[in-house]
Amino acid sequence: xxxxxxxxxxxxxxxxxxxxxxxxxxxxxxxxxxxxxxxxxxxxxxxxxxxxxxxxxxxxxxxxxxxxxxxxxxxxxxxxxxxxxxxxxxxxxxxxxxxxxxxxxxxxxxxxxxxxxxxxxxxxxxxxxxxxxxxxxxxxxxxxxxxxxxxxxxxxxxxxxxxxxxxxxxxxxxxxxxxxxxxxxxxxxxxxxxxxxxxxxxxxxxxxxxxxxxxxxxxxxxxxxxxxxxxxxxxxxxxxxxxxxxxxxxxxxxxxxxxxxxxxxxxxxxxxxxxxxxxxxxxxxxxxxxxxxxxxxxxxxxxxxxxxxxxxxxxxxxxxxxxxxxxxxxxxxxxxxxxxxxxxxxxxxxxxxxxxxxxxxxxxxxxxxxxxxxxxxxxxxxxxxxxxxxxxxxxxxxxxxxxxxxxxxxxxxxxxxxxxx
Length: 421
Hints:
five-stranded mixed beta sheet, alpha+beta, Beta-lactamase, five-stranded antiparallel beta sheet, 31% helix
């Protein structure tokens, strides 16, 4: 009996080693083609079911991750925040409520439209709002200065309003949110954007697409926007003897994570780190929470990353394919698979990979992209035809080809793994 069991084990091990060898030969042959000659490439694939490495090419090397960084941000939110987002902390003294920001990005946001703070303040004669409890600068290290009026560079803050952007729509007429700027936006012949150091906004009259232009955020701006909604009721203050400590909650956390991952929203990613830092201290600091996560939840990573922001907008970030796979594996252990996959873009169906990696009859890729000039990466989960779950990170840096050319090459590898593993 023992001989039969041992013989069966040898057969299984033999075929497993043959399969691994075939994968190594096939993918290595793909990488050896001239297409990859003048770029830096890393691929790491791990079989969750068998708990083993499947393929490794430069998996331990460091790459510019771009928005793959949001995978670490998602992990931070999932491990540090509750099922609902902490909207703010508050305390009450007679007819006055004092509110302290936690970094919640959903308040009056064009997508979420949360109004928790408005509903709460409606119950009181006066409201004090503390917004200076953040140590982060408005931009993270390494962000490009010339992007100040680009939709993807909204400022970080303790108490965001309207997603910290002015949203302009031009259908039958020009509509502006927040309404305060409806009469103040300047319509031009050939320019849209904002002055660099003033909240002067411009919109090209023939532009039809919805446009988001980041606001300059300071205490004066916040006071102006609040008092436009609730005249003579709001005071923006630096501190209070009455320390806000009760937490009010806004939207379900998964709705925030899903939106961040779907459209690769930089602002939401940055604010998720700010929100997570509110669970550590009243002083909001995304730097502190990144350090905390790396020293605690992720202290055993084989390659500790250089992690400088929540969005991946900074080119100072450096991550390895192995580190992404390790975090993706941790999340797969923590979160039921159906819920986890629902947070990621879906190949052929949803988010930033809607037009790529479609399955024959059903989705097989659930992954986050990361794109910044001359770099494109994809990390996530791949379901094979044999019902295996592969965790992968495929990183491409410093190429001069088009992103679509790179995606096409990646797609052939993903399809081969799906059909042959």
